[in-house]
Write a structure and sequence with these properties.
Length: 387
């Protein structure tokens, strides 16, 4: 007797301004590869208009189908005419309930409204801790959204227990509706040490460098790192930090240049600090793999993709001392006060001079745990018929 596979509807869109969200979905799909074949769910990818599926097809997940979230030209034409004549659209296309047993990460899209079980995703509550990084409109929008989910008794996944705890602190929600799934990063094979020589030459890097692969945004705290390197220069200690990631901050567009200008005035660009910007993904992964270690200085995170990539590649991490980083890094890491550049400089000095010890970790266990946990949460919700 053939057992029908559990069908998960996945909402997918590529947002170049938030690659972390894209990598999150891609890593979930990759992690499901680690399940035994009989336990692999069928994935129904609902993709947004203009979304390139070039990131999905190379995953080669064996049980996957893709459907668009936009109307065929005929229906769009009918609705355009009806809008002009009747002032409303007269034809709404909706995927049938059997299209998927559960939808994640859910949104209120009419085309998917017949899929009964929906699970929402809240990455973090950064706006509660750093409201200055957001417009009042965005803060109000998020707050209204969360309150609506609570009112509707919706099921929500958080990427960390830290984020779930924050949510329960600010909102009167039913804990039974809140779930935690620690996502993992699944990295494709990377180059050998000999291959990376050309990569270092390409970007003008020292044989020993420290990588900080974060978008140049306010919450990523690059300025504290730059000040720490300025301190090291004053001490006569050589240390090269390599920043990779999109140099764009919509909340304060001048911020990336502010960081660079500070580094320029300190005389540390080039020899001590490199700003590579948004580089080829393969190059970025190889630079992480062959870095001395990874630096993660964020003021706030929901669950750091950069840290998961470092763990996946067997790298030591020096991270800001925030609750989610403590939850995420159980070994092979040290922590510094997130806005104390002097303490960071001291730790960088120590690691450059004395090195660090590494505890072997089988990261494949993290990936399998992510897959089992994700599938179990969605199956339980679908079986009860919850939204």
């Amino acid at each position: 007797m053939v057992t029908e596979r559990f069908k998960i509807g996945i909402l997918f869109s590529y947002n170049p301004n938030w690659t972390g969200g894209t990598y999150y979905i891609l890593n979930l799909i990759k992690s499901l590869h680690y399940l035994p074949d009989p336990e692999k769910p069928e994935l129904i990818i609902f993709y947004a208009l203009k979304t390139d599926l070039q990131h999905v097809w190379p995953l080669q997940y064996p049980y996957i189908r893709c459907y668009p979230l936009f109307y065929p030209y005929l229906l769009r034409g009918i609705n355009k005419v009806s809008g002009k004549i009747f002032g409303r659209q007269i034809h709404w296309f909706r995927y049938p309930p059997r299209a998927a047993q559960v939808l994640y990460p859910a949104t209120d899209i009419k085309m998917l409204s017949r899929i009964k079980s929906r699970v929402y995703w809240i990455p973090d509550l950064q706006e509660k801790f750093y409201p200055e990084f957001f417009t009042p409109a965005i803060i109000e929008q998020r707050d209204n959204h969360y309150r609506k989910l609570i009112e509707e008794k919706a099921s929500i996944i958080f990427s960390s227990h830290t984020a779930k705890t924050h949510f329960l602190h600010y909102y009167d929600a039913d804990p039974a509706k809140l779930h935690v799934v620690h996502f993992a990063s699944v990295i494709n094979p990377v180059s050998s040490a000999s291959d990376v020589t050309a990569l270092r030459e390409k970007y003008g890097l020292h044989p020993q460098y420290i990588i900080c692969p974060n978008v140049l945004a306010l919450n990523k705290n690059h300025l504290t790192v730059v000040k720490a390197i300025e301190t090291l220069k004053g001490r006569g200690i050589k240390c090269q930090i390599v920043f990779t990631g999109k140099e764009q901050e919509d909340k304060r567009p001048s911020y990336p240049q502010e960081v660079k200008s500070y580094a320029q005035s300190a005389g540390i660009i080039g020899e001590y600090v490199k700003f590579l910007g948004f580089i080829d993904r393969k190059d970025q992964v190889n630079l992480i793999k062959h870095a001395y270690f990874l630096l993660q200085p964020s003021l706030f995170e929901g669950w750091s993709t950069s840290i998961e990539e470092a763990k996946s590649l067997g790298k030591y991490v020096l991270a800001s001392d925030i609750a989610v980083h403590r939850e995420q890094l159980l070994q092979n890491a040290d922590f510094f006060d997130k806005e104390n550049h002097t303490q960071l400089a001291d730790l960088l000095t120590e690691k450059m001079q004395n090195g660090f010890t590494m505890t072997p970790v089988d990261y494949a266990d993290n990936i399998r745990q992510c897959a089992y946990s994700f599938k179990a949460v969605l199956e339980a919700i679908a079986q009860t018929g919850e939204i």
